[in-house]
Amino acid sequence: MRNFSLLTDLYELTMGQGYFDRGLCEREAAFDLFFRPNDLISYSVAAGMEEAAEYLENLLFEKDDIAYLSSLNLFSREFLRYLAKFRFTGTVKAVREGEIVFPNEPILTVRAPLFEAQIVETALLNFINHETLIATKASKIVQEAKGDSVMEFGLRRAQGADAGVYGARAAMIGGCASTSNVYAGKQFSLPLSGTMAHSWIMNFKDEREAFEAYAETYPDDCVLLVDTYDTLSSGMPNAIAVLKNLKEKGHAPKGIRIDSGDLAFLSKEARKMLDSAGLEEVKICASGDLDEYTIRSLKEQGAKIDVWGVGTKLITSASLPSLGGVYKLCAVFENGDELPKLKRSDTEAKTTDPAYKEGYRIYDKATGYALFDYLARAGETVDESSVLVLNGGRKKYEGSFCVKRLLQPLFLGGKRVLPRYSVEDGRKYCKEELARFREEYKRLDLPHIYKVHLSPALFALKKELIEKIEEENGNV
Fold first, then answer.
1. What is the pLDDT of residues 442-463, one digit of tens each?
2. b vs e for 13-31, b when ≥16 Cβ sit within 10 Å of the residue's Cβ?
3. 65: part of which helix (H) or strand (E)?
4. Whether 122 contacts 12, CB under 8 Å
5. 453 - beta bridge partners?
6. Which segments of 309-422 does DSSP mark as H helices, in order?
7. Which of 96, 277, 340, 421 sits between 20 and 30 A of 408, alpha carbons compared?
């Protein structure tokens, strides 16, 4: 893992100098990382916690970092000496990778000496904003594929190498079955997939010769790209001849890929041709600027596609280029006492929830489906045998329910305590958790809004702090 100590915005460091000058660096503080509501987000799939954990474990200011900061003439020698000894010593709670998360609830909470909690803001947002965004997009695409396999191959269109590598990782957590990204495959033990480009076909005398050459090299892993010249008149007849020959030699022909044209029509015609040739087992893979909406449309048109290759619109999250994650102070601590903090805004969605908190998911005990999420002050308990009071008593839930704690310890005293889960662990967990939500929360169009409620104590605290701020500013 690279040392990302300088992967931060300048104001984190200038605030640090200010905290240092006033003796505030060691004041304990807590920050929540969450994302705000967005019309395009019905749910999100949390990812990036592993990268965040590696960052915190390796965070230090090396000699050349200190020399560079010194050259800016913004920081005192004393503060630079403080940075030279810096290590993260705080506590971090986070949801598991693959967890289903919703607006305004903490994905991750940092409680640490103020400067430590402040300096990590930018990098944590970078990791979690990006990977959660891509994992969520992948989840939507996989959902519309309705059980078909989805391959991620967006590296060449990703917005930089890291976006391609960690985007592939996130896409797998979101549900993709494989990636074309060999670097990511090695780095994270991901299953790889890939066939050929049109340039392979064009480098041979004709299409038939190109297919035969590829089949000779990969007789048991042969997927032929059939749309270089003419899908139905040339590509399919040539592919069928080569695939039948493989089958007759005892090999298992794998598939064909269509990358352009009317995918619904071409796939249906290709399926008829394959079946007529006795190649019912051969899969049809489609690619070409696909996303969840085009896949849904193709399904509705009766397309005969078994495998979906999705690149650009997945790896760039084309329909939503930013998650909108933020990192906000929720409390400071003095002499062991908590002083809850709240950011007030004229925009209601930007008014934060105060205090050091816990997040819970409430499930219907009979069906196992998620009902709503519940934020409470740290130390509050949720009694499964009692009526659950929501939002200051305005609502109650009186049914039989069970509870899951969303935030788990990731770091205690600067040491990682949560096990390192594999990408496959995250993928499996995501699939299991998504199955516990009713379809109306997951649909693409006009999804039902999943509620995140506040406990009575947290609701009352937020109301009190808002009223206090308004009174102090003469806005009553």
1. 999 999 999 999 999 999 999 9
2. bebbbebbeeebbeebbbb
3. helix 63-71
4. yes
5. 374
6. 312-315
7. 340
